[in-house]
Amino acid sequence: MHYRSKFFEINVPPSALNIRDLPNATALLTIAYVAFTLSLWWVKWSYTSLEGNTEATHASIFSPIVQLVPTQTLYDPWSLVLSNLVDVKWWKIGVDLLNLVVGGSFIERNWNSSWELARFLLVIGSLSNLVVVLVTILSSAVFPRVRLDAPLDGNYTMLIGFCIVYKQLIPETSIFHIRNLPLVSKNFRFKLLPIFVLVISTVTQLVFLRHYSELLSIWVTFLCSWVYLRFYQVLPPAITGSTTKSLVGDASDTFQLIYFFPDIIKPLLSPLFNMCYWVFCVKLRIREPFNEDDVDTGNSLAEQRGAKKITNQVEERRRRLALQVLQERGAV
């Protein structure tokens, strides 16, 4: 569906409107999300409705089985997983449900793997939750005001992680286009979505809500999701265009962490990110560094998805490769 007016233009894929034909993982995850969220809300409503519970509020009632409570995580470890399928805020229920049905369908069909979508949402989400719980527990030793008996929001993979996947798969596709308005006209593409959501979420948490544990969860989810997609996701030959070779990670230039952030702060972040890459990949060998073939393959796949070339990096890499060849010939 295509909507166009004098000032506004938006494209809605036809598949987004067809909710009767959901892929397997998307359908099962949607059912689980609705079931767990409604069950938690029913428990909250039932308890607050009991006579004598005048002091009980909706926010003060929680379930450590499906919610992430640091002091209870050791006794209810399944909350690391189940909290990925629960929301307690009305606005987040609407956003996540829409994102799961529409975005999950798109991602699952693009990856051509139900297991890959489930792994990204549940495994990477659970890993993010574990990191958040550990950091929260450690920070409580330094900051006494940090509460360990209150539930944390353990479901940001659909809101944050899916945005990173959209940037990877359809970076130059427009979400909407504002036209004919001075100083406002903008073609807002999916490659801008992650930083837009991160900025809005960060400002909201710092200025208005002041839920610093949720702010931590947002950024940990962002980093865990990007690390998985960048270094560890295995794409089968059917997706990479090869007949025999699978692709591990996304080594494309456009998917570097630095390109998630505005140009104005890239000079400050670039040395830090380069140092982290050298420490974890080159020095510690937690993951083998990308070679030239990995980068070229990643760039080729990214261009097929519509990503624009980063010309200066391509030319610099070619110069290094040519210099290396000349040095090898000179040594002979």
From TrEMBL:
<dbReference type="InterPro" id="IPR035952">
    <property type="entry name" value="Rhomboid-like_sf"/>
</dbReference>
<dbReference type="InterPro" id="IPR013861">
    <property type="entry name" value="TMEM115/Pdh1/Rbl19"/>
</dbReference>
<keyword id="KW-0812">Transmembrane</keyword>
<feature type="transmembrane region" description="Helical">
    <location>
        <begin position="21"/>
        <end position="43"/>
    </location>
</feature>
<dbReference type="Pfam" id="PF08551">
    <property type="entry name" value="DUF1751"/>
</dbReference>
<feature type="transmembrane region" description="Helical">
    <location>
        <begin position="215"/>
        <end position="232"/>
    </location>
</feature>
<feature type="transmembrane region" description="Helical">
    <location>
        <begin position="120"/>
        <end position="144"/>
    </location>
</feature>
<dbReference type="GO" id="GO:0005794">
    <property type="term" value="C:Golgi apparatus"/>
</dbReference>
<dbReference type="GO" id="GO:0006890">
    <property type="term" value="P:retrograde vesicle-mediated transport, Golgi to endoplasmic reticulum"/>
</dbReference>
<feature type="transmembrane region" description="Helical">
    <location>
        <begin position="190"/>
        <end position="209"/>
    </location>
</feature>
<dbReference type="GO" id="GO:0016020">
    <property type="term" value="C:membrane"/>
</dbReference>
<protein>
    <submittedName>
        <fullName>LAQU0S03e07448g1_1</fullName>
    </submittedName>
</protein>
<keyword id="KW-0472">Membrane</keyword>
<feature type="transmembrane region" description="Helical">
    <location>
        <begin position="156"/>
        <end position="178"/>
    </location>
</feature>
<keyword id="KW-1133">Transmembrane helix</keyword>
